[in-house]
């Protein structure tokens, strides 16, 4: 797929809330001290890009939220200073060659003039919008004269935003549809991916929704999602190259679509089936067409995020169709959907989907409570129990609204599909005021239901386990991460004793625990792989690793080890000494997708480091229950409960969730 350099200008800011992508390398050169006085620069093209960067930084004052290509610089923050830069830019643009670059600069100038009316109250909004209109109209005329379809499409789309600001929706809609038409023509002629098209389809949906044409808006959003889905590979790589969040850039489209689907879910069934017809199956019409469409859209977003993290196209190809998944009668799947003004809960049980809306919380409030909950569990003194307050608050928001339905359906297994910051949360330790959630339900976490091998699928009856580990006798710092001492030999020896009679085991300890050793010992008959060594999950997959005798083994290379298993996937991989950074939901995304990335049906992992002495007691007990025929979810639940109730473990404070709640089950929750 050919990506032209100029198209990098258009990935960001085509909606009213975003800012533009600049050509970062050239702009960064302009930020060096010798270019401190932009007015002295003789190259108008480079000077113009430097000015755009300064304006970009000023409009987005928070450094951590700077758009891609926008570098933190010593720059002005007030409207008058920014306006001076824009006036300078307007003069310099006139002499820029070649013409396509001049058009691109005019497009960015017009957009920035418009954005000043949005970000600064002192700006004369009608006057600023008219100035933006003049600049964009100039860009449009030049694009028409030089048959520059990409520029023509952008100019029309940006002009449409001005009309949208004025609430002149009919004209905005006409211009946006014209922009989409020329985006399609551009893509057909230039053989580029339709980067502009999905943005204009999205904008069409937004305008139609403002006009109250909800059914047409849904169709436009659906088209935008489908177009984006077809180019996710190119978009993800470009966002990554410019250090942008794929989720921040494309997530709002998915959430606009989902929000409107949920709104339409309250219509009578006949009307719901009409407006959400693009997801219904004629042979088996759903009673919940809009909720099913919302669930399908969520699953696409989950898959896209996981692909963005691991950068493996095969992950998407391995995704299962929702219609092919059959859940057991006592199993339900919970999707929390975090909006800026509310929390939506979708509970999937067999052919039913139940929706509950929680208005007294939102994305920010949930994030604050989860961060506090995790911090108190992970860091506080055991007897203080400050974690209980956020644990109970989160229970009220996430579980209480669906508690009656769970009881009516006699649910005993709850599958959680977390989003954002919820990926970092130890779900088992949520508290209803009397009991932990793990005392009510067996629990598993999945990156997406369609990204999981479910319990209904047949599994081979293999009886071999590979037990690997690396002892650390003292604290070590590896790639900036503090790693605690680890007695892997004791943990693995205890596991071997507990599984005797049911599983044959092979060990790879210390010097034997190498990449080649794993490759050699992982056979087609291996049912489970247990690794007692440090594993660090970072926001970037390139910084994620498992510690072997040879040093850090990158997660990418680790995952590739499993590609040779052609007969059947490994059923379980356990990483008993994992850690993710506090509050880092992207690192937790990587942890949540480890099973899927490795082609393994499920994983047991820890959210944070716990003492090796605890894992020496916990993991052998878990495997003993597995060897007696328990499902993985049941074995984990019973082991966690024993940590809380058995006096032998309570004397070591193992009843505190700092220990047992760190262990989570990811993926398939059935038997090995």
Beta content comes to 5-15%
Number of strands: 15
**Structural class, from secondary structure content?**
alpha/beta
Helix content: 40-55%
* CATH architecture assignment name of the largest domain: 3-Layer(aba) Sandwich
pLDDT averaged residue by residue: 84
Number of helices: 26
What is the CATH T-level topology of the largest domain?
Rossmann fold
Taking Cα atoms only, what radius of gyration do you get, to the nearest Å?
27 Å
CATH class of the largest domain: Alpha Beta
In terms of per-residue confidence, which ranges show pLDDT below 50 for 5 or more consecutive residues? Answer: 1-41, 61-74
- Distance, first to last CA: 42 Å
How many domains? The number is 4
Salient structural properties:
single chain, 672 residues, alpha/beta, 4 domains, five-stranded mixed beta sheet, 26 helices, disordered N terminus
Could you walk me through the main structural features you see in this protein, from its secondary elements to its overall organization?
This protein starts with 23 loop residues before the first helix and ends in a 5-residue tail after the last strand. It has 672 residues and is α/β, with parallel strands linked by helices. It folds into 4 domains: 197 residues, Serine Threonine Protein Phosphatase 5, Tetratricopeptide repeat, CATH 1.25.40; 108 residues, no CATH class; 123 residues, Nucleotidyltransferase, domain 5 (2-Layer Sandwich), CATH 3.30.420; 204 residues, Rossmann fold (3-Layer(aba) Sandwich), CATH 3.40.50.1460. The N terminus is likely disordered. Helix content is 48%, strand content 13%. The strands form 3 sheets. Strands 6, 9, 10, 11, 12, 13, 14 and 15 form an 8-stranded mixed beta sheet that branches.
């Amino acid at each position: 797929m050919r990506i032209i350099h100029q198209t990098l200008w258009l990935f960001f800011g085509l909606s009213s809330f975003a800012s533009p992508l600049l050509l970062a390398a050239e702009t960064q050169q302009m930020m060096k001290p010798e270019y401190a006085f932009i007015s002295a620069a003789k190259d108008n093209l480079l000077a113009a890009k430097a000015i755009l960067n300064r304006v970009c930084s000023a409009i987005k004052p928070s450094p951590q939220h700077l758009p891609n290509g926008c570098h933190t610089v010593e720059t002005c923050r007030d409207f008058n200073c920014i306006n001076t830069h824009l006036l300078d830019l307007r003069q310099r643009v006139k002499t820029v060659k070649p013409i396509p670059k001049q058009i691109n600069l005019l497009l960015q100038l017009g957009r920035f003039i418009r954005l000043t009316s949005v970000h600064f109250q002192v700006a004369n909004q009608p006057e600023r919008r008219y100035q933006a209109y003049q600049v964009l109209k100039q860009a449009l005329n030049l694009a028409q004269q030089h048959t520059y379809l990409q520029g023509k499409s952008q100019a029309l789309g940006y002009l449409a935003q001005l009309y949208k600001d004025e609430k002149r929706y009919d004209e905005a809609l006409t211009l946006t549809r014209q922009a989409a038409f020329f985006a399609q023509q551009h893509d057909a002629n230039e053989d580029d991916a339709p980067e502009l098209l999905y943005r204009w389809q999205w904008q069409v949906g937004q305008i139609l929704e403002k006009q109250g044409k909800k059914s047409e808006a849904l169709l436009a959003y659906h088209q935008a999602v489908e177009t984006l889905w077809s180019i996710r590979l190119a978009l993800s790589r470009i966002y990554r190259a410019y250090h942008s969040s794929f989720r921040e850039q494309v997530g709002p489209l998915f959430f606009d679509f989902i929000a409107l689907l949920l709104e339409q879910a309250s219509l009578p069934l006949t009307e719901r089936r009409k407006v959400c017809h693009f997801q219904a199956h004629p042979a088996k019409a759903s009673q919940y067409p809009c909720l099913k469409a919302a669930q399908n859209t969520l699953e696409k977003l989950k898959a896209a995020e996981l692909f963005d993290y691991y950068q493996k196209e095969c992950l998407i190809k391995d995704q299962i169709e929702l219609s092919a998944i059959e859940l057991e009668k006592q199993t339900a799947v919970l999707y929390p959907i975090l909006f800026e003004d509310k929390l939506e809960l979708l509970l999937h049980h067999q052919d039913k989907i139940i929706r509950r809306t929680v208005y007294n919380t939102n994305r920010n409030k949930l994030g604050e409570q989860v961060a506090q909950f995790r911090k108190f569990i992970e860091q506080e003194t055991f007897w203080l129990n400050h974690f209980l307050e956020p644990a109970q608050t989160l229970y009220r928001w996430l579980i209480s609204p669906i508690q009656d339905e769970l009881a009516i359906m006699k649910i005993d297994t709850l599958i959680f599909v977390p989003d954002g910051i919820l990926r970092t949360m130890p779900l088992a330790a949520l508290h209803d005021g009397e009991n932990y959630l793990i005392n009510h339900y067996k629990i598993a976490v999945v990156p997406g239901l369609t990204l999981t091998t479910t319990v209904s699928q047949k599994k081979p009856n293999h009886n071999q386990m590979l037990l690997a580990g690396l002892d650390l006798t003292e604290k070590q710092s590896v790639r900036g991460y503090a790693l605690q001492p680890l007695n892997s030999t004791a943990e693995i020896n205890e596991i071997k004793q507990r599984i005797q009679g049911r599983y044959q085991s092979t060990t790879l300890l210390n010097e034997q625990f190498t990449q080649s050793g794993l490759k050699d010992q992982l056979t087609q008959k291996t049912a489970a792989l247990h690794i007692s060594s440090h594993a660090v999950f970072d926001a970037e997959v390139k910084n994620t690793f498992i510690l072997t005798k040879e040093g850090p083994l990158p997660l990418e290379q680790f995952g590739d080890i499993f590609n040779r298993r052609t007969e059947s996937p490994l059923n379980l991989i356990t990483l008993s000494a994992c850690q993710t950074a506090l509050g880092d939901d992207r690192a937790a995304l990587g942890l949540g997708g480890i099973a899927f990335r490795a082609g393994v049906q499920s994983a047991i992992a820890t959210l944070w480091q716990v003492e090796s002495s605890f894992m020496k007691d916990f993991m052998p007990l878990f495997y003993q229950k597995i060897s007696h025929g328990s499902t993985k979810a049941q074995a984990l639940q019973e082991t966690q409960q024993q940590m809380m109730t058995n006096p032998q473990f309570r004397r070591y404070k193992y009843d505190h969730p700092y220990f047992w709640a760190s262990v989570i089950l990811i993926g398939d929750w059935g038997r090995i």
